[in-house]
Amino acid sequence: MFTIRMAATEDVLTIHQLAHQIYPSTYKDVLSQEQIDFMLENIYGILALKKSMLDGQEFYLLFDEDGGAMGFIALLEQKNEISPLRIEKLYLLPETQGKGCGTLLIDFATNEAIERGKTILELNVNRGNKAYHFYLKQGFLVTQQVDIPYYKYILDDFVMQKDCSLLTRKRTI
User: Fold this and answer.
1) Among residues 131, 157, 161, which one has the least CA distance to residue 143?
2) What sequence ranges are listed for the domain N-acetyltransferase (predicted)?
3) Radius of gyration (C-alpha) of the chain in whole angstroms
């Protein structure tokens, strides 16, 4: 049995540790080591994570039956009716991938979108990230291809959206 719970400020260290375990293996064939190190510091450093929380990102942690943290998802809701619910981050330990945990987190985010009255669930994924294929299987479609300047780097992403307007809440865990 898995558990998803909203992260509190006290959980920032757990998210930080998970990110430092997951991010390098996710991007080792896509980004330079220099960029991986930069992103870990600027997005997943302790202060950066706290700022993300203060700026409205809601982090949720996924735990296994023994209480071990397996991954996390971060959602961002803009407070107007037509904006999508955004998945800002979704990362799982490599050994948990392919075991339904990602689907569990996507179902959780879909349920959150439905409960909040959002018709669209949206995310960005690096064009070289193998998770792109996972998101397609989860019902996301590419709506844009973007190149986002980020300090001295370019984030080459797909913007993907899932239509939640005809969906009903799924039972997750």
Assistant:
1) 161
2) 2-165
3) 15
Is 62 inside any structural domain? yes
Domain that holds residue 65: 3-163
- Rounded-to-integer distance, Cα 157 and Cα 142, Å: 10
Residue 72 burial (C-beta neighbours within 10 Å; 0-12, 13-18, 19+): buried
Distance CA 6, CA 105 (A): 12
Can you say whether the dihedral through the CA atoms of 3, 84, 77, 55 is positive or negative?
positive
Tally of domains within the chain: 1
Q: What is the CATH number of the domain that holds 19?
A: 3.40.630.30
- Prediction pTM value: 0.94
What is the distance between the alpha carbons of residues 147 and 104, in angstroms, rounded to a whole number?
Answer: 29
- Cβ-defined contacts of 139-142 (< 8 Å, 24+): 139/163
Write the CA distances from 40 to 22, 30, 69, integer angstroms.
10, 15, 19
pLDDT of 127 above 70: yes
pLDDT, tens digit, for every residue of 61-113? Answer: 999 999 999 999 999 998 877 899 999 999 999 999 889 999 999 999 999 99
- In terms of phi and psi (left: phi > 0; alpha: psi -120 to 50; beta: otherwise), the region of 34 is alpha
79, part of any domain: yes
For residue 168, being part of any structural domain is answered with no
